[in-house]
Amino acid sequence: MTDKGQARFPDSHAELTVSLLRSVRELLGADALDRLIGARENEMRTAYQAAMVDAEGLETRIAALTQIRSREGYMAEWQRTKDGWLLIENHCPICAAASICQGFCRAELAIFRGALGPDCSIEREEHILHGARRCAYRIRQEPPST
To answer: From the DSSP assignment, how many helices (H) and strands (E) are in the chain?
Structure first.
């Protein structure tokens, strides 16, 4: 079926995801939900590191991370700034899930830190869930440790 044809049918993935997350929390507890998100975080960290294994240098890693995130539907882009870089996600394909479980956003930031490596700092400056139109992350090169 074409994309146009698919668009004519309801897509209830978001509703299903939200319902499942609520059920996990209610039936198994918040700890179980945290473990579930932690397992997803570990899987993604491993996948990102494997995909970025040949990316040398911080800017190259940022570009590779941006490509990965764009493939995942985040409409990601990056730009150089006067004090580092800005990684921008113009869309959040998991926004419904993240809106009821902030653990996804926490895990995302941890994954980025792992993928980009210890030679930089990364902080979220804009957050869709806090009313921003996008999520944006400030990345700065850290001086080498002596």
So the answer is: 6, 4
Pick from 91, 74, 131, 118: which is nearest to 139 by CA?
A: 118
Q: How far lies 3's CA from each of 6, 7, 9, 30, 92, in Å? A: 5, 6, 10, 37, 20
The SS3 call for residue 85 is strand
Structure tokens at 118: 């210890």
Q: Give φ, ψ of 59 to 5 degrees.
A: -65, -35
Q: Which pTM was predicted?
A: 0.86
CA 12, 135, 17: angle at the middle one, nearest 5?
20
> CA–CA distance from 118 to each of 35, 77, 139 (Å)?
25, 22, 12
List, for residues 64-110, the tens digit of each pLDDT value: 999 999 999 999 999 999 999 999 999 999 998 999 898 999 999 99
Instruction: Please give the structure tokens belonging to residue 102.
Output: 């902030």
Segments of 1-146 assigned E as strands? 76-81, 84-89, 120-126, 135-141
Query: How far is the CA of 89 from the CAs of 48, 69, 111, 112, in angstroms?
Result: 17, 8, 15, 13
